[in-house]
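Why do we bother with holo predictions? Because pocket geometry can differ from the apo form. Keep that in mind while you read this record for magnesium ion.
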Amino acid sequence: NFSQLVRNMVDDLEEHLKDGQEFQLVLPDDQPVFQDPNILRNVIINLLTNAIKYSHENQEIMVKVWEIRNRVFLEVQDYGIGIPEEEQAQLFERFFRAKNAFNLQGTGLGLNIVKRYVDLIHGKISFFSREQEGTTFTVQFPKKFKNEENISH
Ligand code: ATP
Ligand code: MG
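The structure, written out:
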């Protein structure tokens, strides 16, 4: 169950939250798992750990899942440091680290891996970010594996 998977990862990450940080979840009750659970986990954990790392104490992190037709959407929204507009085009490049993140630990690999996984399963990832206001990532997961899609066409 996809919602359960998200909930488990959120529970695992609770201990890494900064003081007063809190996850707010909006999850559908019954959302069957689709796609490789390891890929889903990797995508989710990278987005959630970024949201924790790049936002401040006492801020909420919104995690929302919904479904439209044969796609499942995951949105992770934070009210953190945001990504400078002039650097946003490089966000998914290997080793990219924004200049406003210099004092926070990171290798700049997480999002590159996320992007490659999302491409691999023919999903989509987009983001909206404003410096010092926050960042929202939206991932679209196709519910079918590529092979199954081919069969049904
Ligand atoms: P790691 O490889 O450990 O994940 P990282 O977090 O630096 O290191 P990415 O997850 O790939 O690497 O993120 C790349 C850069 O994008 C970050 O260094 C940061 O500058 C910016 N970034 C990513 N997510 C956010 C976010 N939610 N808010 C603000 N900046 C972000
Ligand atoms: Mg990261």
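Residues 46, 50-51, 54, 78, 80-83, 91, 96-98, 101, 106-112, 135 surround adenosine-5'-triphosphate (ligand 1) (CB under 6 Å).
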